[in-house]
Specification:
606 residues, FAD/NAD(P)-binding domain, eight-stranded mixed sheet
């Protein structure tokens, strides 16, 4: 590749770069091709029927016994994770106090209630990820919080805002339908509760319902087995910080090498007699570089620091120039590298900018592949652990213990060359005809993301004229601003629903909660019976979020995963179908929309 020179900018040559982008592009395409599957999301097994055990709650020490409740309330919030907690807090601040949080787990926390595997830790800096830090007067212990601190923070919010008395735990919604006569949502639970709520807020989130690989023979395995989100410490011993002493004589297999496995494999390797890590696609593993909180820094913080830091981080990752990088971690590396590459007085065309962005991406991934070479001794294992795709093709992970685990004599990487596990028998896992006998098989296969919204929520919504949300969204989500669906009055959706997707979920969820609370307050102020989106505004919004973007084009060349709907196109991937300009711009737009006062696009029915 020779230096390409045009009127405005010089693209670096192969000699200057030290690598050939054309060669890397070809390698990435080959690795993608070998992993494409016709079955897409059908390659995963639902946790129903014989597999329902994987969806049970093993963490409840004592089942809550109570009588069924029938009540009329202002708002029902489905889900007690950070989204549900933030919705409750913002409603309370708006003066809407007669609320009920319905949560199938035994406590608040959402994902951080379920994920208790050893080493569980958040990949987003704690000072921006943990919400309401200023409000509850708490500073995290480390730059990146471990699971226990995050779970305790969810409980802290619950206590601070007196939300425990407003929550129904160990309670699953069985169905909800719009009562046109009374202008309320009728919600029924598995406890026999009947709640009549003016507002229904859906915040069950996508990261709570485990999924399994649909491997032939998976149901035949007779050894011990569990999903990482339902970790069995009675079997392994130890706790969330490790010490899995009961595995010392066990041959353990783990399927999956995503964010969860990256954190727990080192603990399994330290404890098990033999560990087999079954890999389809390696993760791109950057440095964690965790450190304790600087007390002097914490004492120097001024009011408003939390929102400022969140916005700064989201802005940098949205490509909005910032004078300073407040978070300054590996998430922001790529964008700073890109800025350095393009630091020139010359004008840069959009075409050149795309080329330079690709080069910066290659440089970043080259560093991560070099890190594998520098850390792991066995050459065959090194090559299998190298990620051959662009940085944002899969969830970035940060860990300093996973790679060194494969220098242990008892830890074995079983690379499936992109094909996945071949089959499972009563005592073994087979890969490419080779048998691996196991005592324990662990599934680090994540949560349902690409399945239907109501399947993840585990109940159906029935709106006006008996229309089911499953049917209304059968060809894809249909919303206005990601919150409102036509025919489902007074129902608000939170999470990954055609809004402004941000790497820091709690930044996104808090802005969503503020918007929901504002609209609910407006309904009450206007003495309206209900609010819903107009047909036209919903149609316009669908067109807005489904237009081709840089990220949709980027993902179309990526190795399959939940980010791009397992390599399939159509706007249903994790990173698709969101506001194309980015989260900061989306929430700024919503703020301006609220300030204008007429709430254009919504219909208030008196």
């Amino acid at each position: 590749m020779e230096t390409v020179k045009n009127k405005t900018f010089n693209i670096p040559s192969v000699e200057e770069l030290g690598f050939d982008p054309v060669v890397l592009r070809k390698k990435y395409a080959e690795e993608r091709e070998k992993r494409l599957r016709k079955d897409g999301n059908a390659q995963y097994q639902e946790v129903t029927g014989d597999f329902d055990q994987y969806n049970l709650d093993p963490y409840v020490c004592e089942k809550i016994v109570r009588e069924p409740v029938t009540e009329i309330i202002d708002a029902a919030i489905i889900g007690g994770g950070f989204g549900g907690l933030l919705a409750a807090v913002r409603l309370l601040e708006a003066g809407i106090k007669n609320i009920r949080i319905i949560e199938k787990a035994g406590d608040f926390g959402g994902t951080w209630y379920w994920n208790r595997y050893p080493g569980a830790q958040c990949d987003i800096e704690s000072y921006i990820y943990l919400p309401l830090l200023e409000e509850v007067n708490y500073i995290p212990k480390e730059k990146y919080s471990f699971r226990d601190e995050i779970f305790e923070h969810a409980q802290r919010i619950g206590r601070h805002y007196d939300l425990y008395k407003r929550a129904f735990f160990q309670t699953q919604v069985r169905g909800s339908n719009w009562d046109e006569k009374n202008g309320r949502w009728r919600i029924e639970t598995d406890r026999g509760d009947v709640l009549n709520a003016k507002f229904l807020i859906m915040s069950s989130g996508p990261l709570n319902r485990p999924k399994l690989p649909a491997i032939p023979g998976i149901e035949q395995f007779k050894g011990h087995t569990f999903h990482t989100s339902r970790w069995d410490y009675d079997y392994t011993g130890g706790d969330s910080i490790g010490g899995l002493s009961r595995l010392s004589e066990k041959r353990v297999g783990i399927i999956g090498t995503g964010a969860t496995a990256i954190q727990c494999v080192s603990h399994l390797g330290a404890a098990a007699k033999e560990l087999y890590v079954f890999q389809r696609t390696p993760s791109a593993i950057d440095e964690r570089l965790n450190k304790p909180t600087d007390k002097e820094w914490a004492a120097s913080l001024n009011p408003g620091w939390h929102a400022e830091r969140n916005t700064n981080f989201a802005s940098i990752l949205s490509g909005i120039p910032q004078e300073v990088d407040l978070v300054n971690d590996r998430w922001t590396d790529l964008f700073k590298s890109l800025s350095e590459l393009m630091s020139s007085d010359q004008a840069i065309s959009m075409e050149d900018m795309a080329v330079m962005a690709e080069i910066a991406d290659y440089q970043k991934m080259n560093k991560l592949r070099a890190r594998v070479e520098e850390t792991v001794g066995d050459k065959e294992t090194v090559e299998a652990l190298k990620p051959w795709y662009r940085q944002w093709c899969k969830r970035p992970v940060f860990n300093d213990e996973f790679l060194p685990t494969f220098n242990r004599n008892n830890a074995h990487l079983v690379d499936t060359n992109g094909k996945g596990v071949e089959r499972v028998t009563e005592n073994s896992v087979f890969v490419d005809g080779v048998e691996y006998e196991l005592d324990c098989l662990i599934f680090a296969t994540g949560f349902e993301v690409g399945t239907a919204y109501t399947q993840q929520a585990e109940f159906e919504l029935i709106g006006k004229n008996g229309i089911k949300l499953t049917d209304y969204w059968k060809d894809g989500m249909r919303t206005y601003h990601g919150f409102h669906a036509r025919g489902f009055p007074n129902c608000f959706h939170m999470g990954l629903t055609q809004t402004g997707l941000a790497p820091c979920f709690t930044y996104m969820l808090d802005h969503q909660a503020q918007n929901v609370a504002y609209i609910a307050e407006e309904v009450l102020k206007r003495k309206a019976r209900s609010v819903e989106t107009s047909v036209e505004s919903e149609a316009d919004w669908i067109e807005t979020v489904n237009q081709p973007t840089f990220m949709s084009e980027y993902q179309s060349h990526c190795t399959p995963g939940y980010y791009n709907n397992e390599g399939k196109k159509g706007g249903k991937g994790f990173l698709e179908g969101h506001y194309p300009e980015g989260p900061v711009q989306f929430y700024a737009m919503l703020k301006k929309w609220r300030e204008e006062g007429d709430l254009k696009g919504l219909e208030f029915h008196l």
